[in-house]
Amino acid sequence: MTDLDRLDRRILNELQLDGRITNAELAARVGMAPTSMSDRLRRLQRQGFIAGFGARIDPHKVGLDLLVLVEVSLDKTTPDAFDKFSKAVRKVPEILECHMVAGGFDYLLKARLKDMTRYRSFLGDVLLNMPGVRETRTYPVIEEVKSDGPLPI
């Protein structure tokens, strides 16, 4: 991993707050010339510090009001079982995040759906039919206190 200098960190922080900022405005905010800024941005992208750009959509505006966290335990904890489950998860658009964790279960999922009725169908038709799933525990989110926070760079 390449070290980030003070200017790189300021650039990344500004981009996390406003990914649509113009090159000229970004350069002004961090005290650089726009040409130098273009070079730095290209380098940060090439080195993988900037993974991409996109819009944050309000899930409630598009009818995805239910957020659930789901603990998943597999029937086997072998590399092959982990691989099959991981590949299956990547194909499911309702699953926003999937994290392999240490502790009393194997994976923690974050999923978005229309409502609890849709989640019940998703659980029975999709999640419980994924490779190796032995058991799940679901936690509906009552209130999102903090999400999509910028990384503390």
Automatic annotation (TrEMBL):
Pfam families: AsnC_trans_reg, HTH_24. Residues 4-65 form the HTH asnC-type domain. Keywords: Activator, DNA-binding, Transcription, Transcription regulation. PROSITE patterns: HTH_ASNC_2 (PS50956). One of its GO terms (molecular function) is sequence-specific DNA binding. Transmembrane segments: none annotated. The keyword DNA-binding applies. GO terms for cellular component: cytosol. CDD domains: HTH_ARSR. The keyword DNA-binding applies. GO terms for biological process: regulation of DNA-templated transcription; response to amino acid. This is AsnC family transcriptional regulator. It comes from Pelagibacterium lentulum. The lineage of its organism: Bacteria, Pseudomonadati, Pseudomonadota, Alphaproteobacteria, Hyphomicrobiales. The gene is lrp.
